[in-house]
Amino acid sequence: MNKNKKKSHLKNTIKESFRMSIEAIKDNKLRSILTLIGIAIGVFSVVGVMTAIKTLENHVNSQLDILGSNKFYVMKEPALSFQRSKEYWKRKNITYQDYLDLEKLAKTPHSMSAEMATYEDDISYKDKELTKEIKIYGATFWSVRHHQFLIDYGRSITDDDIRFNRKVVILGPDIVDILFPYEYPIGKKIKIEGIEHLVIGVTGKKGEMFGENQDYMALIPASTFTQYYWDEDESNVEIVLESKSQEELRKTMDEIIGHFRVIRKLKPSEKNNFEIVNNKELANQIDGFTGGIKLFAGAVSVIALLVAGIGIMNIMLVSVSDRIKEIGIRKAIGANRIDILIQFLMEAFFLCQFGGIIGIVLGILVGNLIGFVLNVSPVIPVDWAFYGLFICSIIGIGFGIYPAWHAANLDPINSLRYDK
Question: Can you give the pTM of this predicted structure?
Answer without folding.
Answer: 0.60
